[in-house]
Amino acid sequence: MENLLYLLQSQFSDSIGLKQYFSDFTTSDWNELIQLASQHKLSLLLLDIFSKNELIELIPVDQLEELREKNRLNAIKNIYILQEAQIVLEALKRHNIQTIGLKGVYLLDNVFEDVSLRSMADLDLMVKRNNISEAIDIVQNLGYQPSTYFDIHDINTDIKHVPPMIKNDHHYLEIHWTLLEENEPFLIGIDGLWERAKPVRIAGVDAFSLSLEDLLLHL
């Protein structure tokens, strides 16, 4: 764990220190570092950190290829998700439904420099509660099917989004109307989230993001 913490703490200011620290690593040490990073969902960042500090040559060939393959596969998956995001966002925009891109779909396009560096399992979007039924109809016309029964008019205090909608068995879409279940000890003021939302481009489409403060709290 100390190796991983040192790497993350030193990456921005101490390239020489990093080189000295990792130059004596054995193959076993590298395997342990990669495994630990994977457990903490940080393995996608390892290659980027070593690359920016010009330390790629320190990584043994087999471990370097393992890291590169993880990043390649993640980049391919994210590109497909962003392409799907473009289709969905354009369809919602045509129907004048304002949409906030949540978590990965916003971060990939507006924060991360490299599409391979952030893992993302599904597409999370938020619309206003009174747009939920229309949004469901729109994405169903795009091929998405509900994974289980849902009706926005039911009492839905223990969920915050439409149950995952699935397209072609591998595209997963979650349409939120809030960020926190309504039976939690406290509530999030949704009107305030929308008032503070910022216009952005996501997957080449005009949309919205949470304000910086709301984004940090949500993440």
Provide an overview of this structure:
The chain is an alpha+beta fold and 219 residues long. It has nine helices and seven strands; from the N terminus they run αααααβαβαβββαββα. It has a five-stranded mixed β-sheet with strand order 1-2-5-4-3. The protein has a two-stranded antiparallel ribbon with strand order 6-7. The longest helix is centred in the middle third of the chain and has 34 residues. It starts with a helix and ends with a helix. 25% of the residues are buried. The mean pLDDT is 88.
Mean pLDDT: 88
Q: How many strands, which pairing sense, and closed or not: the largest β-sheet? A: 5 strands, mixed
Strand-residue fraction? 5-15%
Rg from alpha-carbon coordinates: 20 Å
Low-confidence stretches: none
Proportion of residues in helical segments = 40-55%
Distance between the termini: 23 Å
Number of helices: 9
- Please tell me what the overall shape is: elongated
What is the spatial order of strands in the main beta sheet? 1-2-5-4-3
Query: What series of H and E elements makes up the topology?
Result: HHHHHEHEHEEEHEEH
Instruction: Give the structural class.
Output: alpha+beta
Please give the number of β-strands: 7
